[in-house]
Amino acid sequence: MKARVNVMLKTGVLDPQGEAVRHALGSLGFAGVESVRQGKVIELDLAETDRAAAQAAVTEMCEKLLANTVIESYSVELV
Amino acid sequence: MKARVNVMLKTGVLDPQGEAVRHALGSLGFAGVESVRQGKVIELDLAETDRAAAQAAVTEMCEKLLANTVIESYSVELV
């Protein structure tokens, strides 16, 4: 089973990487880009075949390693 | 209009970051993680309100800045 995890900085947390992308887009002539937030996407290939067990395992992985829950939020999607 | 861009390394391109995550998950006791690929997600807030124009603009941003199309593939999603 495949899982996709999206990790984004929480709203209100400064995102210098996204801000740099916004500036760069402006310099390249792309007008009308109001804000940019950059995050991570992690695709996992799991041996687990049970959806509920996979969801629980991936959520635990996020809490322990994949996301810094102080400043980041995550979402898990099974595909 | 909001757009979400997913940038992943193309299949076959070595992903040391993903590999490091896989090892770390193994060390933490998560068995059955067969492979991990890590990519970027970029959320853009656009002034553009026309879907087709927004899609075209974001695709051009990907080609010019957001993705290195030699080794990365991208997908654009309007939300």
TrEMBL record, chains A, B:
<keyword id="KW-0436">Ligase</keyword>
<dbReference type="GO" id="GO:0005524">
    <property type="term" value="F:ATP binding"/>
</dbReference>
<dbReference type="InterPro" id="IPR003850">
    <property type="entry name" value="PurS"/>
</dbReference>
<keyword id="KW-0067">ATP-binding</keyword>
<dbReference type="GO" id="GO:0006189">
    <property type="term" value="P:'de novo' IMP biosynthetic process"/>
</dbReference>
<comment type="pathway">
    <text>Purine metabolism; IMP biosynthesis via de novo pathway; 5-amino-1-(5-phospho-D-ribosyl)imidazole from N(2)-formyl-N(1)-(5-phospho-D-ribosyl)glycinamide: step 1/2.</text>
</comment>
<comment type="function">
    <text>Part of the phosphoribosylformylglycinamidine synthase complex involved in the purines biosynthetic pathway. Catalyzes the ATP-dependent conversion of formylglycinamide ribonucleotide (FGAR) and glutamine to yield formylglycinamidine ribonucleotide (FGAM) and glutamate. The FGAM synthase complex is composed of three subunits. PurQ produces an ammonia molecule by converting glutamine to glutamate. PurL transfers the ammonia molecule to FGAR to form FGAM in an ATP-dependent manner.</text>
</comment>
<protein>
    <recommendedName>
        <fullName>Phosphoribosylformylglycinamidine synthase subunit PurS</fullName>
        <ecNumber>6.3.5.3</ecNumber>
    </recommendedName>
</protein>
<comment type="subunit">
    <text>Part of the FGAM synthase complex composed of 1 PurL, 1 PurQ and 2 PurS subunits.</text>
</comment>
<dbReference type="InterPro" id="IPR036604">
    <property type="entry name" value="PurS-like_sf"/>
</dbReference>
<keyword id="KW-0658">Purine biosynthesis</keyword>
<dbReference type="GO" id="GO:0005737">
    <property type="term" value="C:cytoplasm"/>
</dbReference>
<dbReference type="GO" id="GO:0004642">
    <property type="term" value="F:phosphoribosylformylglycinamidine synthase activity"/>
</dbReference>
<comment type="similarity">
    <text>Belongs to the PurS family.</text>
</comment>
<keyword id="KW-0963">Cytoplasm</keyword>
<keyword id="KW-0547">Nucleotide-binding</keyword>
<dbReference type="Pfam" id="PF02700">
    <property type="entry name" value="PurS"/>
</dbReference>
